[in-house]
Amino acid sequence: MAPDHPGGLTREHVVWAYRLLLDRDPESDDVIGPKLAGSRDTSELRRHLMTSAEFRDKNPDFAHTNDPTVVIKEIAPAVRLLLDLSDHVIGLNILRGHYERDEIRFVRSVLDPGDVAVDVGAHIGFFTMLMAAMVGSAGRVYAFEPLEAHATMLEQSVVENQFRDRVMFRRAAVGAASGTATLTFPVETLNSGGAYLLRNGTAPLAGNQRKEVPVVALDMLDIRRPVRFIKMDVEGAEPQVIRGAERILKDDRPVILSELHPTQLDRASGVSGDEFLAQMKALGYRAHPLRDYAPAKAGHHDYAALVGPALDRAPDAIITVALLHS
Fold this sequence. Notes:
The protein is α/β, with parallel strands linked by helices. The chain folds into 2 domains: 11-65, no CATH class; 96-325, Vaccinia Virus protein VP39 (Rossmann fold, 3-Layer(aba) Sandwich), CATH 3.40.50.150. The protein is 33% helix and 21% strand. It contains 12 helices and 13 strands. The protein has helices spanning 11-22, 29-37, 42-50, 53-58, 91-95, 101-110, 126-135, 148-161, 238-243, 246-252, 262-269, 273-282, and strands at residues 70-76, 79-84, 116-120, 140-144, 167-170, 173-174, 179-186, 196-197, 208-216, 229-232, 255-260, 285-289, 319-325. The strands form 3 sheets. A 7-stranded mixed beta sheet has the order 5-4-3-10-11-13-12, sandwiched between helices. The radius of gyration is 20 Å and the shape is globular. The mean pLDDT is 89.
């Protein structure tokens, strides 16, 4: 059967996942579409079903793995992070040292003590804490996260590391203009990184909650200049972040690290991956995929050696890209 989804998922995948994990067929076709839309591949589909109350009721021996369990992990020398082990995709991978290693290497190649960095979609503060250590007490990291549970852990990590002198944190989303927006997120999930801004006139994925959150535009904030680096992971709202930061991009030309997620770009911003690349190209930026290996001679500030050729078209798959000014 032809795939119904860029990740290769079909209706049959959903039906058989229900049968194997919940011992029943889906209630109706109405629940199949949201499962396809909310899952990149069979691994994510499995996680979505295994976090449901129904799965826990039918498999009590596995339920303890989903209970919130907050621990502190040293993620770099003298840098500590609060994380939740019930977040199997992000929390456990951070604990095991497997989380976004290529991205960490790239960020280290860009930042120096005294630099200014911005973390948009900071989640629990993994990159915020690492960047705060890189820029030191003379630098600044401006971090933004709208989801309350993530924001609370980030703030606790700031205190744990005594980074209040260098981390400026706001409980807010970042967009094209200041105001409010609707954040939607799953109630039960093993991946806490799936919250996104709901586009006007669209419905959230089935079972998702909604919450009104404040939105800020970077150009309207009192941010120390020049900005050296921006990391953004906002589940498809990246075009909105860029529209609200055009002055910073034109004046400072920061290096940008971003997720490129075609499905979420359409869902959250109503644009395709190619349209987002065109938006960045109009501002003088080209998108380069990160290499999955470090060249032997690549040194500090040689971040161009850590990326591949500029993309002319957006791939169907989800990738991380470095947006570099031409």
